[in-house]
Amino acid sequence: MSKKICPAVVVVVMFVLLLAMSGFAQEPAAEKSKQGSEAEIISLPAPQYDGWISVEKAISLRRSVREYVDSPLSISEISQILWAAQGFTRERKDPPRMWNPKYEWQGGLRTAPSAGALYPMEIYLLAGNVEGLTKGVYKFIPKNHSLKKVMNVDKRTDLCNAALKQASVEKAAAVIVMAGVYERTSFKYGERAERYVHIEVGSIAENVYLQGMTLGIGTVIIGAFNDKDVKSVLQLPEDEHPLAIMPLGKMPKAAG
Ligand SMILES: Cc1cc2nc3c(=O)[nH]c(=O)nc-3n(C[C@H](O)[C@H](O)[C@H](O)COP(=O)(O)O)c2cc1C
């Protein structure tokens, strides 16, 4: 005697199958960037304002370094490098006269020159092997020398892929990404702003190179990458445009 299958059972089985095919086959939800007030803030150790090596020596030894020793960087070293990039060197309470009110004035003059003191650069740090920092993506906040954690995942491999698979990006203990906000500079300088923002990347990068030299940390300024991919990997806000990548890692003895 043949058994009849109840239509309700068929519907339930099909529903479960459909769920399995759609839901479980999906990629895990992508990590969302936290740029707002819900983000974790990490205070950085105070930077040093003096060092053991002359500026002439650091300039003469500077080289682009693309291979690193597989050892961690300390949070103090990261603090020092970020200060050299965009840290404060003098308090200035009021913004310049031509400040775009859409943005927050952070309250100081910085280590690298900036057209009109408008400071269009945002500095991101991808931490992979840093003592005192969990893996993830951070934004440097100059006004209180701190890091805001914007992503909880290690994005070095994705960034490496976006940078035409340049291995230095994946091998580095940490990676800096500079993103320019043209609107901060164009509010005063109009079309000239693009040139000014690009000049500023160079100044900041040289500070990172030279500060790295004093700490035995190697870096290279990387300009070859896919803009859209970098923006997507870091989930940058619409008005932030990636302009340079700088991997950071302990230098092999022979380099530099
Ligand atoms: C605008 C710019 C873009 C660069 N892009 C890359 C890059 O994508 N990858 C890389 O390995 N080096 C890059 N470099 C580093 C140069 O290759 C390096 O500065 C050059 O070979 C001279 O070597 P030195 O920096 O050791 O003096 C770039 C340099 C500049 C100034």
Question: Would you kindly provide a written description of the structure presented here, covering whatever features stand out?
Answer:
- Helix 2 (55-61) packs across helix 7.
- This protein has a single domain, classed as NADH Oxidase (3-Layer(aba) Sandwich).
- The protein has 256 residues and is α+β, with helices and mostly antiparallel strands.
- It has helices at residues 7-24, 55-61, 75-86, 156-162, 167-171, 182-189, 193-215, 227-234; strands at residues 40-43, 73-74, 88-91, 108-110, 121-127, 130-131, 136-141, 146-151, 174-180, 217-219, 241-250.
- Strands 1-8-7-5-9-11-10 form a seven-stranded antiparallel β-sheet.
- It is built from eight helices and eleven strands.
- The model is unreliable at 19-29 (pLDDT under 50).
- The site of flavin mononucleotide has 9 residues, from loops.
- Average per-residue pLDDT, rounded, comes to 91
Q: Distance N terminus to C terminus?
A: 86 Å
Q: Count of DSSP E strands?
A: 11
Number of domains: 1
Share of helix among residues? 25-40%
Write the layout of secondary structure elements.
Blueprint: H1 7-24, E1 40-43, H2 55-61, E2 73-74, H3 75-86, E3 88-91, E4 108-110, E5 121-127, E6 130-131, E7 136-141, E8 146-151, H4 156-162, H5 167-171, E9 174-180, H6 182-189, H7 193-215, E10 217-219, H8 227-234, E11 241-250
Parallel strand pairs: 2-6
Antiparallel strand pairs: 1-8, 3-4, 5-7, 5-9, 7-8, 9-11, 10-11
Bound molecules: flavin mononucleotide.
Properties at a glance:
256 residues, alpha+beta, NADH Oxidase, two-stranded parallel sheet, binds flavin mononucleotide
